[in-house]
Amino acid sequence: MSPESTPDNVVSLASVRARGKGVPPPEREPRTVILQVSNVQADQEVHRHIGIKDSLHLVDLHEALDISFSLDPGNPSEGGPWWFTRGGQRVDPAVEINHHLRYSGDEITYHWGLWELRLRTLESYPRDRGTPEVLCVGGSGSFADGEFDLAAVNAALTGTEKIRSVLASTHAEIRELIRRSSIFDFVPLLQALDLRRASPLPEEVVAVCRALPLEDEQVSRDAFWVVVLALSCMSDEHLAAEVLEATMASLGWVDDDGSALSGRQIRGLCAASLMELAKIGAYGEDALAPVDRLDIYRELLGS
């Protein structure tokens, strides 16, 4: 999926011609916009990465932020209200998200009492039929007592009624990996990938996918599937490394000294399979565009 990066001052000639003929321009298809949301203070940093349907409104984003950051809607700090600003000016919460957070680098600020959360657009993608309207794809730190619980956040954002049906459409080794690790954070991701959709891939690419992983040892097979799940998140390298290390540790795979395996070690465990992924454009420096890579990840992860 290629990020939407067209500047605001580019005009569609087709739309101009259509208006000249009295034909309304085609409606813009909603996209999933990936937002980096941060609160940085001297004594702590709290971050979230959120994917949300950009045709929802800022008031919907407000609700998603409150859930993602465990902000009590009935008790804003010092009793203050919430609002959004852009460039220091308040913005209408009734407008669609894409009005302010559409292109990479767009920024606004969410104010909740005395807290300020800085929102920045990382990229956006076309939406799939099964994509949840909002999903927290990662984060660190917490305003509340205790650690950030991604699974609990996404359970609140998306509900848990579809877990069984989502897992039913996934590869057997993925289902077993989730059961063994007790990490259900991947379920919303698998739901968003819409694993039941028809594959547009050439037969030769499908054949490669179905032959993977090449490794026989359990630790190496687990490493491969964890890497594929991390790649499917379309996150930055830092977050991907956290996903790799935390998931492998949850599966019981650690280094000889008991420390967590590094991302490099994990990828090394399944190097042969990753070389095959690179050959079909799903991994490495010469990887295909995101939308094409996602088709390959769907084929790998589906049942």
Account of the protein in words:
With about 300 residues, the protein is α+β, with helices and mostly antiparallel strands. It folds into two domains: about 30-160, Structural Genomics Hypothetical 15.5 Kd Protein In mrcA-pckA Intergenic Region, Chain A; about 165-300, no CATH class. About 40% of the residues lie in helices and about 15% in strands. The protein is built from twelve helices and seven strands. The protein has helices at about 15-20, 60-70, 150-160, 165-170, 170-180, 185-195, 205-210, 220-230, 235-250, 265-270, 270-280, 290-300; strands spanning about 30-40, 45-55, 80-85, 90, 105-110, 115-125, 135-140. β5 (about 105-110) and β6 form a beta hairpin. The chain is globular, with a radius of gyration of 21 Å. The chain starts with 12 loop residues before the first helix and ends with a helix. Mean pLDDT is about 85; it is low at about 1-25. InterPro entries: MM3350-like_sf.
Lateral strand order in the biggest sheet: 4-3-5-6-1-2-7
How many runs of DSSP E, i.e. beta strands?
A: 7
H/E element sequence: HEEHEEEEEHHHHHHHHHH
Strand content: 15-25%
Level of helix content? 25-40%
Q: How does the major sheet shape up?
A: 7 strands, antiparallel
Q: Please give the count of helices.
A: 12
Average pLDDT score: 84
Write down the domain tally: 2
Taking all Cα atoms into account, the compactness measure Rg is 21 Å
Class from helix and strand fractions: alpha+beta
Distance between the termini: 23 Å
Indicate the overall shape: globular
User: Uncertain runs with pLDDT below 50, 5 residues or more?
Assistant: 1-25
